[in-house]
Amino acid sequence: MSDELSVDRAACMILESCEEEIVTAFDRAGSLKPCPIGSESLCCKVCYMGPCRLVGKTDRGVCGATRATVAARNFARSVAAGASAHSDHGRDLAFTLMAAAQGETQGYRIRDVNKLYAVAELLGIETKNRSVNDIAYDVGKEALDNFGRQRGTITYLSRATRRRQALWKELDIEPRGIDREVVELLHRTHMGVDQDAEHILDATMRCALGDGWGGSMLATDISDILFGTPSPLQSQVNLGVLKEDQVNIVLHGHEPTLSEMIVAASSDPELLDYAASKGAKGINLAGICCTANEVLMRHGIPPAGNFLSQELAIATGAVEAMVVDVQCIMQALADVAKRFHTKLIATSKKAKIEGAEFIPFDEHKAYDSAKAIVRAAIDQFPKRGSTRIPPIKEELIAGFSHEYIGYMQGGLYRSSFRPLNDAIIAGRIRGLAGVVGCNNARVKQDEGITKIIRELIRNDVLVVVTGCAATGAAKDGYLRPEFMEEAGAGLREVCEAIGIPPVLHVGSCVDNSRILTILTQCATEGGLGDDISDLPAVGICPEYMSEKAVSIGTYVAASGIYVLFGVHNPVGGSPEVVDLISNGWMKKVGGGIVWEPDTDKLLELAFAHIDRKRRDLGLAAYDPTRFGASGDRLIEKLEQQLGQEQVVGLYSANPSSSTPAAES
């Protein structure tokens, strides 16, 4: 039954309607069982005397490698690959920024000059009496220098708290250059090199920190400079955002350079006229995965779904083109597209896909490339057959950059995290949680994500979300502006005072770097210790599947946060490595990773950690009844006067207002 596969009603409808037509990731996961040896890192493939399966009485490989060494190597290689993916994204953006600054690109310009100046200051670049383009070029060049640096440290480590910087230095895990750490980690895990599990895992943290505080953070900042820093906006989510009478183009992947130009081309009068000549009433864009979040955060383009929705979007029969670049793109899409009129268009020189049309995207001719892609999609519209667009979509608010979160608490000239810290100190907010990561076809789509978020906000934990977890939360209504009925009274009081939902969408998976910045600002604001590791905060990745998620979890842990993963433990075959990554890292860096597939137990661990951190700070124990009544009185009074539906409408009509219009 489809309802055993997903909590998303739209996904279930498509799965039921196309059951005999296509094979999806859900079907393949049901028929293809994971390797029990590899899933616990008891298989070593780093040389060709193997693969060596360390099971039963066999506890060493041909070379003598132990289970701990093998598990640590496998984990390290996953982190290296994940760090490479996100950091390579940042490198491409740095090249684009430099080309735009020199006038060599088409369609790109500096959209957020204030962010440019802020980043230039962080990178130590002179701005006085210099042109915007000259500053932008130097920012791009300094970003690239961070990739190839051989000595010293990456620049953005200075963004961390002083205590955190000192700890990284003491432990010798400061990343030098982003690329150097990836290469060295792969070298260390070659046969016959590093053979001490703890030493391998220390290098793994250093590599991951190069991703979180380097490649990913640079990617986020340069995206903001080129395309604009997000601020809150309203949109919709789920497969119901596809249009019956318009050309539907689904943007899937991770590169904002491509999607930004397609957004621009989709409103080009020439192409709108061309769409009309084919019988369409317009051009409708929707997103999948992190490209969805990039264009949502800046333009309000609605996400059609997250990772496990990609095949289902095509199966609606309403998608003229799915345009993909890199990361999280299933090879099976080409087979699904062949059964419909959909054109699958691959655009990255790094990622050709058998069965897809290849239209290379060139930043130097960006707008022309985008127009060619949109035109190819329009040509498919007359070929469309019957459709089955589920009538299911949900309202959402997104666009909470760390700059806006500071602004909303203090205004343009007094940007501050003081109100948030005070709310945590007082106990109105119990703590903070980042719920992030992928979907995994081995578990029910979005179930872990939505259950964890529901229980966190019921217990007055303010949640920030990114990536596919954000889309999962949005599909279930958790990003609606009026979504307060599930929130605890203390959290609800704070959110209503500021005018925000209790779950804040802060971007794509590369934008987990925004969470690092938010937590650092909380730590430096005062009253909650002097480092990220002091905060009553947790990171949770309920349905992870990619190596990027493992890199993210590692850099978040190395930054001082307790991280919880769902699904399964990828190093479970080595109790020694499990202990090093959890207890060992907690003692060493103040953060660690724990895998717990049982959602209820995962939540117990999260609340226990948050409450322990509150005790360590000398804060009052969390009491959900202490402040609740004060935050509910106005709402109760208005409901008596106007009725519940009208009160909800007042908030949803003006989500940025701190009080409903009726009060004034």
Q: What would a concise description of this structure say?
A:
This protein is α/β, with parallel strands linked by helices. Helix 3 (67-101) packs parallel to helix 8, helix 7 (178-188) runs antiparallel to helix 8 and helix 9 crosses helix 14. The N and C termini lie far apart (51 Å).
- The number of strands is 16
Distance between the termini: 51 Å
Hey, roughly how much beta strand do the residues contain?
Answer: 5-15%
Count of DSSP H/I helices: 25
Key descriptive features of the protein:
664 residues; alpha/beta; Substrate Binding Domain Of Dnak, Chain:A, Domain 2; Rossmann fold; 5 domains; six-stranded parallel β-sheet; 25 helices; 48% helix; 10% strand; disordered C terminus
Give a written overview of the molecule.
This protein folds into five domains: 2-53, no CATH class; 67-227, Up-down Bundle (Substrate Binding Domain Of Dnak, Chain:A, Domain 2), CATH 1.20.1270; 239-383, Rossmann fold (3-Layer(aba) Sandwich), CATH 3.40.50.2030; 406-628, Rossmann fold (3-Layer(aba) Sandwich); 633-663. The longest helix has 35 residues, at 67-101. It is an alpha/beta fold and 664 residues long. The model is unreliable at 650-664 (pLDDT under 50). Strands 6-5-4-7-8-9 form a six-stranded parallel β-sheet. It is globular. Helix 21 (547-558) links the parallel strand 14 and strand 15 (562-565). The chain starts with 8 loop residues before the first helix and ends in an 11-residue tail after the last helix. It is built from 25 helices and 16 strands.
